[in-house]
Amino acid sequence: MKKFSKVLVVIMALVMVLAFSACGEKTGGTLSMATEATFPPYEYYDGDAIVGIDVEIAQAIADKLGMKLEITDIAFDSIIPGVQSGKYDIGLAGMTVTDERLLEVDFSNSYATGVQVVIVKEGSPITSVDDLFGDGNYTIGTQTGTTGFLYATWDIADEGLGTVNSYAKTTDAIEALKTDKIDCIILDSAPAQALVEANADAGLIILDTEYAVEDYAIAMQKGNTELQEKVNKALDELIADGTVQKILDKYITD
Ligand code: ARG
After folding, report:
1. Helix axes 189-198, 170-178, angle to 10 degrees
2. Model confidence, pTM
3. Of 249, 232, 230, 250, whose CA–CA distance to 240 is shortest?
4. Which of 95, 99, 117, 251, when mutated, tests ligand 1's pocket best, judged by the most ligand atoms within 8 Å of its CB?
5. Closest ligand 1 atom number to CA of residue 216
6. Is 54 in the pocket of ligand 1 (CB under 6 A)?
7. Distance between CA 22 and CA 5 in Å, rounded?
8. Ligand 1 mean position to 96 CA, how many Å?
9. How far is CA 157 from CA 21, 139, 165, 182, 212, in A?
10. How many helices and strands in the chain, by DSSP H and E?
11. What local confidence, expressed as pLDDT, does residue 11 receive?
């Protein structure tokens, strides 16, 4: 090889190394995500790492925006205040779009459907959702600030039909059910299934009847249209090219 072409090869190699490192570099800053990670398969701990559907969707969005994803695990009912104040860019936590929340934050387009179900212990007198509105005066466990908590409060406690106990973590609600402190739990179906499976020896079952069907979306600060447009564009592309469905199918098998 002539000396001159050797020099060229070295220069080209250098250019390529520089180009690659520029690609790997996150140029668009940090995308901070608030979540509550006792909600498998949407967000949960695998060792020290938070993993799950929402984490993969957020990472795919961050990748599209050239941003570095930073995840913070906080109480579920702190997510909306944290997004409202601008402490976090996005709230991604299997969060249901509701009219009340729309007064506080804006939501992206929906990326998944959630179904509220009821978990009981085998042999429970509660055999369908309707039993919760009967005269059993049951104690219902929910995660604080969730739609399950709101429904149970509005439909059951406020009507004098039962009591609502709320827990910071879904896993605390499961413990309470296992130890008979509560009669049932209202929870989203995929986490309900995952938690029932994780406690296979506890004899927990999910009732066939559904309490409510909901849409999950990403919460963002009201009026931050620049972020909303970017996130929605990225999310729409990920829905259109099948990435979101692939992530859902990876974690939810039935
Ligand atoms: N979908 C329900 C809601 O929006 C429950 C979400 C709970 N999410 C969580 N990561 N703990 O209220």
Report:
1. 50
2. 0.89
3. 232
4. 95
5. 1
6. no
7. 25
8. 7
9. 58, 9, 10, 14, 17
10. 9, 13
11. 47
